[in-house]
Amino acid sequence: MPTPDQERPSTLPGDYNPAEYSAEYKLLYLQGLVADKAYEAITEFLEKQSEYEIANLLESFPTQNRLLIWAQVPENIKGEVLAELEFDTRQPLMENISSKEISLFTQDLDAQDISEILDTVTESVRTSVMATLDEETRVQVNKLDTYEDWEVGSYMDPDLIQVREDISLAEVQNWLRENDELLDDESQELLVVDQSQQLLGLLSLVDLIKHDQSTLVSELIDTAITINDRLDIQDAAAIFRSEDIRFAPVINSHGELVGQLNGEDIMEIIQDDVDSTMKNLAGVSQDEELFAPILTSAKSRSVWLGINLCTALLAAAVIGQFEAVLAKVVALAVLMPVVASMGGIAGSQTLTVVIRGMAMGQIGGSNRLWLLNKELWVGAINGIIWAIIMAFIAQLWFHDIKISTVIGFAIAINMTAANVSGISIPLMLKRMDIDPALSASVILTTVTDIVGFMSFLGLASILIL
């Protein structure tokens, strides 16, 4: 199998199987085609990719190249590709697409994908496209658009396979055979409702087959784990993880069945949440994509760089209070970054674990105090171990027991404080309804720098001057 480390491939075999090539290998190949402006070859290549792969490839190019590649995407899958793209990638591609073209792209899509695409267009284009949809699809799209972006309802699939409780298994099977397009390879259960659309439970396809066909559906109903349509999608993802389910019926406040939430949608939410957390921890805007324009990226990052500068100046002000001791003992200036660095790493380790635990819904109630106590001891133990090691190194380096003692105690203090801060800061931010991933790392850096410098230089002032 070709590896990404190989040279950029100039050709692919005639019996090319997309599954045999890595994503990076395909990217290298497509880059060569784009550089050569080999339009026919680009089209031929894209015809063999799925909509997911094409979307990923488009997002791997700068904007000007995306437009070139987009023009070569086969017309019959452009709608599916648009639905898979991130908003910021999709928007420039749709700027010069007419409402008539969008209608053609969306004619075979489900309501979820159509709603995703129409979020990118103007109101006039949206109205024109909506007028071309059949009544059932139009109702479903409008239903999805009544929900906020963070609500389960905006992610659910409103197209349901549901059966009544008062019919026989034979009738269900006959109905499914007449409408064989309803079931896909992932289907394992049918939704059971009563005459007023109240959800009663699930009918397993295994039960549908193995039981006497004269049996009524009502006799084989399994309990369903339901999700409210107004629930926060992050809370719904936590339910999916804890209950280990692949899909869940979505009901409204009246208990009426309005849609279903699928595992693949939840996986997308979890991935988006991971991406968002990683960006927030680094002080990068959630909306910034990899190949965003230079000025856009510079602007999105400048806010947190400015905040970081303010915190750095605060730490510098602390150092300035100990100018006298630094002027007399040059070794302190050499060792000072070690204290801050060890505290910063220890705190970041704790912060990462804690924020992940929060995202998984694992931290709350009485276990917060247990975790605080645990991190206190972890920080103290590691602090003492690395304090002894660093003190020994400092003694070999400077041959001064006072300097060795100062660096040892400062590292032990700072690493302990860093671990405690790593759990207490995100807990405090969460109580204040502030996203811990967004600002915890900046606050933690400030704390470890200030505690590290004050303990190091303060002890030096006492023991050395």
UniProtKB/TrEMBL annotation:
<dbReference type="InterPro" id="IPR036739">
    <property type="entry name" value="SLC41_membr_dom_sf"/>
</dbReference>
<keyword id="KW-0479">Metal-binding</keyword>
<dbReference type="Pfam" id="PF00571">
    <property type="entry name" value="CBS"/>
</dbReference>
<dbReference type="Pfam" id="PF03448">
    <property type="entry name" value="MgtE_N"/>
</dbReference>
<feature type="transmembrane region" description="Helical">
    <location>
        <begin position="376"/>
        <end position="397"/>
    </location>
</feature>
<dbReference type="GO" id="GO:0046872">
    <property type="term" value="F:metal ion binding"/>
</dbReference>
<dbReference type="InterPro" id="IPR038076">
    <property type="entry name" value="MgtE_N_sf"/>
</dbReference>
<dbReference type="Pfam" id="PF01769">
    <property type="entry name" value="MgtE"/>
</dbReference>
<dbReference type="InterPro" id="IPR046342">
    <property type="entry name" value="CBS_dom_sf"/>
</dbReference>
<keyword id="KW-0460">Magnesium</keyword>
<feature type="domain" description="CBS">
    <location>
        <begin position="156"/>
        <end position="219"/>
    </location>
</feature>
<comment type="subunit">
    <text>Homodimer.</text>
</comment>
<comment type="function">
    <text>Acts as a magnesium transporter.</text>
</comment>
<keyword id="KW-0813">Transport</keyword>
<feature type="transmembrane region" description="Helical">
    <location>
        <begin position="303"/>
        <end position="322"/>
    </location>
</feature>
<feature type="transmembrane region" description="Helical">
    <location>
        <begin position="334"/>
        <end position="355"/>
    </location>
</feature>
<keyword id="KW-0472">Membrane</keyword>
<dbReference type="GO" id="GO:0005886">
    <property type="term" value="C:plasma membrane"/>
</dbReference>
<keyword id="KW-1003">Cell membrane</keyword>
<keyword id="KW-1133">Transmembrane helix</keyword>
<dbReference type="GO" id="GO:0015095">
    <property type="term" value="F:magnesium ion transmembrane transporter activity"/>
</dbReference>
<feature type="transmembrane region" description="Helical">
    <location>
        <begin position="441"/>
        <end position="464"/>
    </location>
</feature>
<protein>
    <recommendedName>
        <fullName>Magnesium transporter MgtE</fullName>
    </recommendedName>
</protein>
<keyword id="KW-0812">Transmembrane</keyword>
<keyword id="KW-0129">CBS domain</keyword>
<comment type="similarity">
    <text>Belongs to the SLC41A transporter family.</text>
</comment>
<dbReference type="InterPro" id="IPR006669">
    <property type="entry name" value="MgtE_transporter"/>
</dbReference>
<dbReference type="InterPro" id="IPR006668">
    <property type="entry name" value="Mg_transptr_MgtE_intracell_dom"/>
</dbReference>
<dbReference type="InterPro" id="IPR006667">
    <property type="entry name" value="SLC41_membr_dom"/>
</dbReference>
<feature type="domain" description="CBS">
    <location>
        <begin position="220"/>
        <end position="276"/>
    </location>
</feature>
<dbReference type="InterPro" id="IPR000644">
    <property type="entry name" value="CBS_dom"/>
</dbReference>
<feature type="transmembrane region" description="Helical">
    <location>
        <begin position="403"/>
        <end position="429"/>
    </location>
</feature>
